[in-house]
């Protein structure tokens, strides 16, 4: 059964990884990078700052940091050493057939995907924090495309991404649970002046300027979509 699933995973990977063009090489390589999304993350903090008191902004930011740390370390430090599944770019059975972008092979093991866990953890947390349909749709699509880029650049099997997605959703839900639990502790709530923002947390549809986050993300994508026309890997 396991061998059949792994064979199917390889077949799907090779089919998806084999569909490439010079333009998409550039676009996907940039999309899958981490630093290009700094404006998107900054826009989230900006919206929090425009709606919450500064103590709540700092506390929520720390929850975001905890979220990413948990998702990333669960995959890289806990699960990968257990499963020890090579990335497709380092799998001796198919490595010669893998289309790599810019020669990047990644580390030795790739199951589960940290990129999938991190992006879906953030998408899940954003969904629960803002409860905004447009924002949720954007982040879910963003996470899905991010996962696809990992197959495109040759560093993850679809199975790596699927399991990473499960980890991401679990971490996102748990972290949001921790967030809400902390706000129910009187000493913490008082220290954060939570009474000023209680309505926003319980009824987040009152949060304003959320469209800034979506526009920032779309403009970021548009910027490197245009840049990729002239820049080739």
UniProtKB/TrEMBL annotation:
Keywords: Hydrolase, Membrane, Transmembrane, Transmembrane helix. SUPFAM superfamilies: Acid phosphatase/Vanadium-dependent haloperoxidase (SSF48317). SMART domains: acidPPc. Pfam families: PAP2 (PF01569). Residues 61-176 form the Phosphatidic acid phosphatase type 2/haloperoxidase domain. The chain crosses the membrane at residues 27-49, 56-79, 109-130, 137-155, 161-179, 212-231. InterPro entries: PAP2/HPO (IPR000326), PAP2/HPO_sf (IPR036938). GO terms for molecular function: undecaprenyl-diphosphatase activity. Its EC number is 3.6.1.27. It is an enzyme of class 3 (hydrolase). The keyword Transmembrane helix applies. This is Undecaprenyl-diphosphatase. It comes from Butyricimonas faecihominis.
